[in-house]
Write a structure and sequence with these properties.
Elements: E1 4-8, H1 13-25, E2 28-34, H2 38-48, E3 52-55, H3 61-67, E4 74-77, H4 78-86, E5 93-96, H5 104-112, E6 116-119, H6 122-139, E7 143-145, H7 148-157, E8 165-172, H8 182-185, H9 190-193, H10 203-211, H11 213-225, E9 233-237, E10 243-249, E11 254-258, H12 264-272, H13 286-289, H14 303-314, H15 318-334, H16 340-353, H17 362-380
Parallel strand pairs: 1-2, 1-5, 2-3, 3-4, 5-6, 6-7, 8-9
Antiparallel strand pairs: 8-10, 10-11
Helix pairs in contact: 4-5, 5-6, 6-11, 6-15, 10-15, 11-14, 14-15, 14-16, 15-16, 15-17
This protein binds magnesium ion.
Magnesium ion (MG) binds at residues 147-149, 218.
Amino acid sequence: MNKKLSVLGSTGSIGTQSLEICEKHGMEIVALAAHSSVELLEEQVRKFSPKYVCIYREDKYAELKQRLSDTSAQVLCGMEGLCRIAELEENDIVLNSVVGMVGLLPTLTAINAGKDIALANKETLVAGGELVMKLAAEKGVKIYPIDSEHSAVFQCLQGNKRSQLKNMILTASGGPFYGYTYDQLKNVTKAQALHHPNWEMGNKITIDSATLMNKGLEFIEAKWLFDLRPDQIQIVVHPQSVIHSAVEFNDNAVIAQLGVPDMKIPIQYALLYPERVECPTKRLSLTDYGTLTFGKPDLETFKCLSTAIKAIERGGAYPCLVNSANEEAVGAFLRDEIEFIQIGEIVSSVLDKFPAAEIRNYDDVMEADKKARDHVRSLVG
Ligand code: MG
């Protein structure tokens, strides 16, 4: 339990909950990195005394350095700082919870340095799944999933043979607009989209949950993490978010992982694996729920989800193109530049716009990323 940890994305929702877990179990923090929240990052540095701290936004570097001038923390910035932290000799494990595909290079850097990863940055696997999994296998690095669905599958596989896994059941809450028709989706507001019924999360993932893109990204993430074919992953809408996902083995036995919808459970399992110790969450009371329900996802109405599935079926650069188009479209929606319904239209347009291309290396990922973002900006601007 005395693993040494660096946290990339320490001021976000997953980052702050992770630090709560670290504090409870006395884990040593080697380094902290945040996007732009200088004030909270300063507070975290004073509490956890990491040796290194990084602010991604370079224009915030001077302010952070000034605020921490009376501490011994070495202050870094930008992508270079993130990667420097990812490969620190002192790390036993690197928790990556940055938002978006910015997380890919730090993940690859940590793996190259032989550091295990606790992965909450799903875009890393969506955009560069093939590269990440290949490099991890080469370096003998373990990737512990923090996404609740993938943690559930990881937990269900314990003590079973991966080779005897037949199918994965990926549960989805359905988000705030479950059951809506296409016409109803035309009128939803930003405030409605930012209000998730079960989970409290950052803005990007909350919008992704409302469009069901989050489930699409998780579908792709699952394919890479557990080496599944797309036809082995079945999405089931389960509005109560009690069953976090399930696996079906060759004998048709299904094993599921259940719990209250609280990210601290998967975070703690990833950080303390294989230990199961007290976790600061509520306990599950099935009788309080009474009824658990299940339904099929509406792939016609929720275009982001069907687009993500098509993208991984086609393979190559398509998942990366779809992910980057989505990041741009969600950004535009959060800035009130487009309507909710346009996110799905924009994201699905990349399937027709771009011919098939291979992903052989990091530069190929960056090229696909740029193409998709330029395309979306031309549509939005
Ligand atoms: Mg999830």
